[in-house]
Amino acid sequence: MKIYTGRGDEGQTDLRNMDRVSKASPRIEAYGSVDEVNALVGSVRPTGYDDVDDQLRAIQNHLHVVQADFANPEPDEDDPRVREDHVDALEAIIDGYDDELDPLESFILPSGSETGSRLHHARAVCRRAERRAVAFAGEEDANGTAVVYLNRLSDALFTLARVVNKRDGVPEENPTY
């Protein structure tokens, strides 16, 4: 497969159904932001914790599904789509690690170990991807479950950042006002 085609040189790109759209369209902004999240999650692995690495690998695969979902304006029954079980998997991650953590009683600064800080960074970019997805869904038909997935993913990345920081022995810091 050839890496460059020149088809995007005029600021247009192809959707799954081969429609041409501007690279600045809300749809492209949404799945491009999801791609950023995926790249950041990939930069975190390996964390040094096999269980966390397994969760992040699954999340990266789910993010490819989100991108495919957003890139397809006319999905067929067998096309990749974000489903409720993707959201359920994130909730299981959050709930599963919650017992390992101290109760959250106030905001915390997004910091910590190198891995924890990277997870916080991925969480912040995930929030941006969610905002882009909400804007896209406000203008075009979009799978609402994919937007919910991004919302829950930011919570999961926050939880994973806290877990890694705790395991690394790095205390959480609260902002001062």
What's the arrangement of secondary structure elements?
Blueprint: E1 12-14, E2 20-22, H1 26-44, H2 50-70, H3 84-98, H4 114-139, H5 144-167
Antiparallel strand pairs: 1-2
Helix pairs in contact: 1-2, 1-4, 2-5, 3-5, 4-5
Unreliable stretches (pLDDT < 50, length at least 5) are none
Order the strands across the largest sheet as they lie in space. Answer: 1-2
Count of strand segments: 2
User: What is the straight-line distance between the termini?
Assistant: 54 Å
Largest sheet properties: 2 strands, antiparallel
Outline of this structure?
By secondary structure, the chain is mainly α.
Tell me what you see in this structure.
With 177 residues, the protein is mostly helical. It has one domain: Cobalamin adenosyltransferase-like (Hypothetical Protein Ta1238, Chain: A, Up-down Bundle), CATH 1.20.1200. 59% of the residues lie in helices and 3% in strands. The protein has 5 helices and 2 strands. The protein has a two-stranded antiparallel sheet. A hairpin with a 5-residue loop joins strand 1 and strand 2. The mean pLDDT is 94.
